[in-house]
Design goal:
The complex is a heterodimer.
Chain A (H helix, E strand, L loop, with lengths): L1 H23 L12 H29 L2 H25 L3 H16 L8 H4 L9 H7 L7 E4 L3 E4 H13 L8 H18 L1 H10 L3 H17 L11
Antiparallel strand pairs in A: 1-2
Helix pairs in contact in A: 1-2, 2-8, 3-4, 6-7
Chain B lengths: L4 E3 L11 H18 L6 H18 L1 H4 L3 H12 L5 H9 L8 H25 L4 E4 L10 E9 L6 E10 L2 E9 L2 E2 L5 H31 L5
Parallel strand pairs in B: 1-2
Antiparallel strand pairs in B: 2-3, 3-4, 4-5, 5-6
Helix pairs in contact in B: 2-4, 4-6, 5-6, 6-7
The chains are: A mainly alpha, B alpha+beta.
Chain lengths: ~240, ~230
């Protein structure tokens, strides 16, 4: 299963990126946060197509077939392996207390939680955090840079793209030697994450006048909130 | 389907006052209860009561559970909307563009925007109704007029999603003027789309787009809002 995915991956992507740059490189609506909107919209269309054709249907099937405790176990497992670098990022952001709590989570969930399948730590009051290198750079004062829609990965900013490269280096799955195990786990994680977002699909369809702009603005707001750990000051009417 | 509300902490302004002031506030409270009814409820208590009531109805109503969107819309319209300040929400969504609108245009935008938010809210209510709501610690002082009530929507097998309400004290009691899901405001998220629409086709263009959006929702869901 993994080989065809890789073969499909890069050539197709390369063609799509070049086509996107050629077609929409300079078309913008003048939004200062989104200077390469033309390119982004094409990339967004590509991602939506991929989602509609493959990822969403698979996620739906996955969601329908797996019993809730199994789904919870899968989500917890991937959450647990992510907690270590969430702790590292909390430390880099000058929050040693949160970092200690994250490491405590890893210890408790990897043992009492049976390889992370059960989130015992949350029940003990060790709250799950959400941190990544993009947030750390933001915390250090780096601005967003332009909004970018990446193929497959979706919405990012220039800062968060740099963060993503480090997140991928730090990803425990990247260090699994066996290629097929590594790729199977990556696909499983992707599908599990996508399945968690299924209920949000319909709400966004109902809400958005322009889905591209709705997702972009939602992403930028959410990142801003995450960098402030949920305590972002309200944006003034400029 | 399981639905329930739990509270982690509770805070009531004025809890530590002396007995004398306590009696005074009791009398004052009675007076206000008669004149203003539920409008004088503390903001966190209000959110808690309203979400509790609404989820209770959703839990018991087989029609809503099986996807009767007309009934869900009515529930949102009757139980939730009276606590929202749509004028303020519209102003926030329009941002500085609000200045370009005539009073009639503002009314039209507010009316259409209201319908759009009702739909969105109803959809969210049906999609996420089996989740548990956790109320986070809430603090305010007696003089506060602008507060944020924080909740978490806990989902089985996923990270909790934050759902925060911003409320302002008005003559008619506390009114919600913004709702943030996972840190993204449902109101200001429209600001750049609205501004773009107004730049391209004017305030009336925006009103037409909103009408079209609401109509397409009508066609899709075969429902109408009054």
């Amino acid at each position: 299963m993994t080989a065809p995915i890789r073969r499909f991956g890069f050539r197709q992507l390369f063609v799509a990126v070049v086509a996107a740059l050629a077609m929409g490189g300079c078309a913008t609506s003048g939004n200062p946060k989104d200077p390469i909107e033309g390119f982004n919209r094409v990339m967004y269309g590509f991602n939506e197509g991929l989602d509609a054709a493959i990822i969403r249907p698979v996620a739906k099937g996955y969601d329908a077939v797996l019993p809730t405790p199994v789904r919870t176990g899968v989500t917890n497992f991937f959450g647990n392996i992510a907690d270590f670098f969430i702790g590292v990022n909390n430390l880099l952001q000058g929050k040693p207390g949160d970092a200690a709590s994250d490491l405590g989570r890893v210890l408790v969930n990897s043992t009492a939680g049976i390889f992370g399948l059960i989130d015992v730590a949350s029940d003990m009051g060790l709250e799950k955090h959400e941190e990544d290198f993009g947030q750390t750079f933001g915390r250090w004062g780096a601005g967003n840079g332009a909004y970018v829609v990446l193929p497959l990965f979706g919405p990012r900013t220039v800062r968060d793209t740099v963060g993503l490269v480090l997140d991928m280096k730090a990803d425990p799955l990247a260090h699994i030697d066996d290629v097929s195990t590594r790729n199977s786990l990556r696909v499983l994680r992707l599908i599990d994450n996508r399945a968690d977002l299924l209920p949000a699909d319909k709400v966004i369809e109902e809400a958005a006048l322009d889905k591209y702009a709705y997702i972009r603005d939602g992403y930028l707001q959410r990142r801003r909130s995450l960098i402030h750990d949920g305590n972002a000051p309200r944006e003034a009417i400029e | 389907m399981t639905l329930w509300c739990t509270e982690t902490t509770q805070h009531r302004p004025g809890m530590h006052k002396t007995m004398k002031r306590g009696i005074f506030s009791l009398l004052a409270g009675l007076f206000f209860a008669v004149t203003a009814g539920a409008a004088e409820m503390a903001p966190d208590a209000m959110i808690k009561t309203v979400s509790g009531e609404v989820l209770d109805i959703v839990r018991k109503d087989k029609d809503i559970q099986s996807g009767n969107s007309q009934k869900t819309l009515e529930l949102v319209e009757n139980k939730i909307l009276p606590h929202f300040d749509f004028k303020r929400m519209t102003q926030l969504a329009l941002g500085r563009e609000a200045r370009k609108a005539t009073p009639q245009q503002l009314d039209s935008v507010a009316g259409e925007f209201r319908n759009l938010l009702v739909r969105t809210y109803s959809k969210a209510l049906t999609e996420f109704s089996d989740r548990e709501i956790i109320f986070k610690p809430f603090k305010m002082t007696a003089t506060d007029t602008d507060v944020k009530v924080r909740t978490d929507i806990r989902q089985t097998g996923g990270k909790p999603v934050s759902l925060d309400y911003y409320l302002e004290k008005t003559a008619a009691g506390w009114k919600v003027y913004d709702v943030e899901v996972a840190g993204a405001s449902l109101v200001t998220n429209y600001r750049s789309s609205f501004a773009h629409e107004i730049q391209v086709s004017g305030m009336d263009g925006l009103i037409r787009s909103l009408q079209a959006k609401n109509k397409s929702g009508d066609a899709a869901g075969a429902v109408k809002i009054k």
